[in-house]
Amino acid sequence: MDWSGLPEEILFSIATRMDHLSEYIRIGAVCKSWRSALLVRAPPLHLRFPFLLVYYGMWHDNAFYSPLERKLHHMKTPHRRRPKTRLGSSSSDGWVCKVHDNVNLHLHNPFSGAVVLLPPLICDDYFEYARKAVWSAEPTDPNCIIALLCNRVYYCRPGDARWKVLNTSLEFVPDAIFFNENLYMLQPWCGRIVAIDPHQGRDMTMATRPDGFLQGTDKLLHLVAGPSAPMLVVRHMKNEHETTWVEVFRVDGTLKKWVKTKSLDEGMLFLGMDNSIWFSSSNLKGCKGNSIYFMDHDTYFLVDHLRIFYLEEESFGVIGEIDTEILDSSYEWIVPTL
């Protein structure tokens, strides 16, 4: 029997009954026609639960830790050696940014193997280096804007020959996200957030210091693009490794201020060292909305604890432990796409 001729509706009906993304991917590997059919339609939501992206093995192949399965999945990359740096990035669309020698950059989808080349980074300042990249849309979209955070902020579109310097009043931007096609840039030492349209080059303060906010080494800040507004998550830390409390603020565009909230719009937040994402909890069995996933590092036992903070109940939970030798210190969350 020629399985390549199986009707697409039947194929997709079978694929959506898979319990894990790895099984879904193996179905697509049977033949070209099956892979093409599955690429057209996104995997069902329960197969797109965020993974932890880590490097593993001699050749530093991509590895993905599934919190739902508590299992590590290995996947070959199209590059034979590990880039010297993997930038913190917006990974809710399945893409990551990688840089070689602080010059050559590309966006890579480790699930589909797709690659989008970016202009080389040529800096006037010898000490300037790329720290984080964020993008406004699917990188294959010609209207996508990629922003690169260095000592200055650069931006480009796929296919551009060079980076442009963003005209902003901020001298240094350690964190940023795209929301509604505007780039929101955070100054963590004061909690101020500024929005700018990269094409117009005029920035506007959207919110200032949250009430009662004092930045220090006992806090970690995470900027997240929520479904209705940018969010700021403040993790209160003990000994820089243990989270003792979590607060969430959202931008009120009318009042131009941060407003404390107990609602994540029935979603979940996944907090990483370099990126953080919002993910819908609808139709996900065993997953509770208004919950926040994050990692705490145990320096004594050399393990990382994957924990949950339930925002409404103001309580903590523990999913499990991950060996520190497996987990990259600059881990990031990624939502699988094919």
UniProtKB/TrEMBL annotation:
Pfam families xref list: Beta-prop_KIB1-4, F-box-like
Domain named F-box: residues: 3-37
Residues covered by the KIB1-4 beta-propeller domain: 64-300
SUPFAM superfamilies in alphabetical order: F-box domain
Lineage summary: Eukaryota, Viridiplantae, Streptophyta, Embryophyta, Tracheophyta
Source species: Acorus gramineus
Name recorded for this polypeptide: F-box protein
